[in-house]
Amino acid sequence: MLKGRHLTEPGDFTLEELDEVFDLADDIIEHEEDYLDAAHGKLLATLFYEPSTRTRFSFEAAMLRLGGQVIGFSDPKASSAAKGESLTDTVRTVSCYADAAVLRHPREGTAHLVAKTITDMPIINAGDGGHEHPTQTLTDLLTIRHELGSCDNKVVGVCGDLLFGRTIHSLVKTLNRYSGNKFVFISPKELCMPEHIKAHLAPDSYVETDSLDDVIGDLDILYMSRVQRERFVSEEEYIRLKDYYILDHNKMKHARPDMIVMHPLPRVNEIAVEVDKDPRAKYFDQAKYGMYVRMALLSKLMGVENNVKRSEA
Ligand code: NCD
């Protein structure tokens, strides 16, 4: 039963519960018009203390497409945070008005802390610093299910900023709960996968390299990522590392014909625009799956998934 639950990290849900969300997302994709009023009368709050395009808009689009409404801010300077109000007081207040809240914050662990104090409204973590990004993981898994049939037995290359990339941390930990997945961590040594993530994995389930060329031909999935400029202490270090990997047409020649390229977006330079035309490039499809999976998640957490008007076949 997902009604009323928080989602602060993918591990909050069992694999069966994740499947429930994906099955609902599939039904919404097939019969979107049946869900037009599912969240009628419900209100979602989006509380964004860090910039976002896809995550905030996809949540807002998801809620509006379910017939619900949205309040919120995308600039904390426009909220009472600017007057010194604590985050928990802000969210406590929002819980008097809204049926669910989506929170993005630059500090690791924030969503978890807030969720512990709020009992009457689901809190969804939309990214806490370099820590976790569970709804991007739902997006990524729904994409993999649709494009490759299942989330099991894949060779998954994750490339770029493995140190600060929260989407990568959440995804790797979750794919590791499915069976038979192997990981190839591709990064410069300065941005390698943190020990606390590797600690979740069996030693023979991953390899580490700094060469994308050496491994691209082995992968079922290549998950590219942006170097996370905002989490660097030194701008010089960022500039030195930001273009370490650029996936282009030439590199794609060495990938398998059935490999897929994913990226949570925004991209900076790490995928050349020429790759967008390659049928293996799935990152914009991924953004669309993200909206559908958020429609499913919101429906489940607000308990409205059965408010469906089945159209005549
Ligand atoms: C990601 C994020 O915010 O962590 N973006 C997103 O939510 N789609 C990735 C990033 O910013 O690089």
Description of the molecule:
The chain is of the alpha/beta class. The chain has two domains: 10-132 and 290-302, Rossmann fold, CATH 3.40.50.1370; 134-287, Aspartate/ornithine carbamoyltransferase (Rossmann fold, 3-Layer(aba) Sandwich). The protein has helices spanning 15-30, 54-65, 87-94, 110-117, 134-148, 166-175, 195-198, 212-215, 235-241, 249-252, 283-302, and strands at 43-48, 69-73, 100-105, 123-128, 155-159, 182-186, 206-209, 221-224, 260-262. Strand 1, helix 2 and strand 2 (69-73) form a beta-alpha-beta unit. Helix 1 crosses helix 11, helix 2 (54-65) crosses helix 11 and helix 5 (134-148) crosses helix 11. The radius of gyration is 19 Å and the shape is globular. The chain binds N-carbamoyl-L-aspartate. N-carbamoyl-L-aspartate binds at residues 54-55, 127, 133, 136, 166-167, 226, 264-265.
Topology of this protein?
Elements: H1 15-30, E1 43-48, H2 54-65, E2 69-73, H3 87-94, E3 100-105, H4 110-117, E4 123-128, H5 134-148, E5 155-159, H6 166-175, E6 182-186, H7 195-198, E7 206-209, H8 212-215, E8 221-224, H9 235-241, H10 249-252, E9 260-262, H11 283-302
Parallel strand pairs: 1-2, 1-3, 3-4, 5-6, 5-8, 6-7, 8-9
